[in-house]
Every structure is written in C-alpha cells, then in structure tokens.
Amino acid sequence: MPKAEIYILAGFLGTGKTTLLKELLTTEHEEGRKVAVLMNELGEISIDSDEIDDTVPLKELLGGCICCTLQDKLESQLQEILKLYQPDAIYIETTGAAHPVEVLDAVLSPLFADLIEMKGIVTTVDGTLWKERAAMPPQIQQLLLEQVRFADLIVVNKTDMLSDFEQGKLCMEIQSLNAAAPCILTSFSRIPAKKIRNLSVSAKEGAEAAHVHAGLGLSTFVYRFSARVSQSGFEDFLRGLPDGMFRIKGYIHFSHADYPDLFQYSYGTTLYMRECMNLPLNLVFIGHEIDWKEILQKLEQLEGRLPEQD
Ligand SMILES: Nc1nc2c(ncn2[C@@H]2O[C@H](COP(=O)(O)OP(=O)(O)OP(=O)(O)O)[C@@H](O)[C@H]2O)c(=O)[nH]1
C-alpha cells in the first residue's frame, strides 16, 4: 500500500496557512488525488474549517495545540483518517503557536510510522509582521525564528504590502536563518505545486536519502526491529548518539522481556514503560543534521544482522 504523504503547515497566527491550504487543495483536486485535512485550533471553535470544501475529509483538533495537550487525540484522528480514507496526502494545519519540532514529534506515532511519509514542514511568514517583530515579546520572536529555522519550505507571504526593497531585505534575512529551505516570495500563499511535492524530510530506502539530505534542517527516520535486542547493547547505542538527536520514541523488545517496552528519549532523557501486548516494533527518530546511514548501521549491528565493529 502506498504511504500517505504528510505535509505540516506551520507559521504564526494570520500568516496565510489557511489561504495556502485552500490553494494546495485546489491543485490536489485538479490532479485527482485523494487528500484529507487535519485542522488544529487553539480555540474551541474552528473558523478555518468552514473555508474548506465539504468534499474533503476533515478532522478538527480544537481547544489546544497538537504539540502539547492534544497529542493522543492527534494520534487517534490520524489513524482514523488513514484507515477510513487511505488518502494520498494529509495536510495538517497547525496553530500559530506550534513549534515545528514538537509537531513532527506529535505526528510521528510509532503505531503507524511505516504507513506515512513525512514530506515536510511548510512555514508561512507574514512579511509585514516579520518587519515589525522586534516589538513582539521575546518568546514570540523566538517562535518565529524557530518556525523559519526548521522549515523545509518557507512561504514569505503578503508581499503585496511590501516594497521591492523590503522584499529583498526580508528574503536575505530568512535565508541567513535557513539557507537550505527554498524561500518563495508571494502573496495570498500562491506557490507552484511542484515546490511542495518535491519536499522530503523522511529517510527513505534504508536511510540513503536522509544521508544525502543531512544538513538540510530537521529530518526523521523510522527503524523497524525484526528481532529482540539486548538492553545493554541498546543503552550503548544511546550513549553514542550525536548532539542533534532531539527525540526518539517507539517500541523495542528486549531479549529478557515478555513484551515490548514503550521507549521515549527527549533531549537526552530516557524513559521505558513495559507494555502488556505485542506492538509494531517501530522506533521513530527526529534530529538535526544526523547521518541516518550511521544510525541504521548501528541498529542493524544491535540486532545482530551485522558483525560488531571494533
Ligand atoms: N494582503 C494580504 N492578505 C493576505 C495574504 N494572504 C492571506 N491574507 C489574509 O490574511 C488573513 C489571514 O490569512 P489566513 O490564511 O487565515 O491565515 P492563517 O495563518 O490560517 O491564520 P490563523 O488560522 O489565524 O493562524 C486573511 O484575511 C487572508 O485573506 C496576502 O498575501 N496579502
């Protein structure tokens, strides 16, 4: 079964995410692809959902942010979308307050990580707001920077309200923060569809692709264990992790245990919780500038598929 492509639409409040989503859905319809939308809103009522065509399967996550309070709900809704509609693509519109790393983390559930292909984070930037950002509280300024820094594609929007000089300056500032992501200057979120289709943050074909992309911002990798492994060997593996590894989560079956453990790793802290049934042994990784080929090799060694290196 082909994997469902996942696109995350990030960007601060009012920057043009819904406008972009509508543009993208129009193109998807013209191309006859099956798509679904997951809309996250901080408030209890979604205004943006009303703007989406009734024919598009849409799930709402209201009253919080998927990167903090609504993680479990997100998981069940994504699973339902995958099961009911088997879409070619799922667009997730985040709240303006969402942090890109946390959103990736929330979306990549080890339960269905092998059914989806994470295509990337598209961040919309409001050119007029960006110009004035120094007047905003420091936490908001930081969030705006991180949304740009970890994007795979940056849509600098509302250029109709900026002079040519301001557009040039803005573009240079954005590129100095994230030189790897293409930056498109536009108004009303109009972007060529192929720009978004070409995205890829997932490691494909045994981590080769991600290896090539190392250095292009955040990337993700899913490893599926086919055997039990030694816990001490796994802990050795953790001790050798590179600095840019932000997050690992998933199920791992240790040689001494009856059932797998749910394993969580977050910025160096680890947690194990024994499960009481068998679960897919997927381990999901999220990192920055990681050589996934090396990680793959180490995990294969751990499983005893390859001889240990001295
Ligand atoms: N002038 C101008 N207005 C724009 C442009 N793009 C979007 N808008 C308007 O800006 C407002 C916010 O756009 P949305 O697409 O709803 O932004 P959003 O990021 O989804 O907003 P939230 O869901 O509140 O975070 C709407 O009134 C849009 O019509 C643009 O390029 N130029």
Automatic annotation (TrEMBL):
GO terms for molecular function: hydrolase activity; nucleotide binding. Residues 218-303 form the CobW C-terminal domain. Signal peptide: none annotated. It comes from the Bacteria. The keyword Ion transport does not apply. It catalyses: GTP + H2O = GDP + phosphate + H(+). This is GTP-binding protein. It comes from Mesobacillus zeae.
